[in-house]
Amino acid sequence: MKTKLNLLAILAFTFLFSLTACAQKRNIALKQLPASAQKYITQHFPNQAPSYIIEDKDLMKTDYKVVMTGGAEIEFDGKGNFDEADGNKTALPNSLLPKPISTYITTNYKGQQVEKLEKERWGYKVEFLNGLELEFDNAGKFLRIDD
Q1: What separation, in Å, do the N-terminal and C-terminal C-alpha atoms of the chain show?
Q2: I need a surface site. Which of 8, 82, 93, 131 has the fewest CB within 10 A?
Q3: CB neighbourhood size of 42 (10 A)
Q4: Spatial CB neighbours of 61, under 8 Å, sequence gap ≥ 6
Q5: Based on the number of CB atoms within 10 Å of its own CB, is 136 exposed (0-12), middle (13-18) or buried (19 or more)?
Q6: Is the pLDDT of residue 3 over 80?
Q7: DSSP of the chain, one letter per residue?
Q8: What is the CA radius of gyration of the chain?
Q9: What are the residues whose beta carbons fall under 8 Å from the beta carbon of 50, sequence distance 6 or more?
Q10: How far apart (Å, rounded) are the C-alpha atoms in residues 95 and 92?
């Protein structure tokens, strides 16, 4: 009987803890984003406004997702550092690309337009509108074509 009560208490505690650990999402205004994220948006999307911004708070981290009126989605970490941009079937501004990556693409893939840019721990992943994906290290050096 005592074992069953202990087990029940552990299960109840686990259930309550899991409820508090759930992420909380809410809409926020542009001025509530970290300053670096605000600057990034105004610098690279000067002719668009955010359609909506979602703050996703978890116990361990906070993330932001910004959806622009042109359809592009940009994601930032809790400090406002860029994580990912997705044009959703439209080209992203070339200004988003780090200079060495932009130079490589202009030289080797002239005329191709970038639809998606992801910042990873090891570097960057770039996807063109035609579906071709390239990988670069943190310095912008080409690594490989991703299958």
Answers
A1: 57
A2: 131
A3: 12
A4: 77, 78
A5: buried
A6: no
A7: -HHHHHHHHHHHHHHHHHHHTS-EEEEE-GGGS-HHHHHHHHHH-TT--EEEEEEEE-SS-EEEEEEETTS-EEEEETT--EEEEE-SSSPPPGGGS-HHHHHHHHHHSTT--EEEEEE-SSEEEEEETTS-EEEEETT--EEEEE-
A8: 20
A9: 30, 41, 66, 67, 68, 69
A10: 8
CB 44 within 8 A of CB 96: yes
Hey, what are 9's tokens? Answer: 């208490």
Backbone angles phi, psi at 109, to 5 degrees: -135, 50
Predicted TM-score of the model (pTM)? 0.81
Distance, C-alpha 107 to centroid of its chain: 27
The arithmetic mean of pLDDT across residues 37-42, rounded, is 96
Average confidence (pLDDT) over 38-44:
96
Q: Which two tokens stand for residue 27?
A: 């809409």
C-alpha 14/C-alpha 69 separation (Å) is: 42
Closest of 49, 97, 98, 46 to residue 71, by C-alpha: 49
Residues 50-72: pLDDT tens digits?
999 999 998 899 999 999 999 99
Residue 92: name the closest of 59, 60, 108, 68 by CA: 68
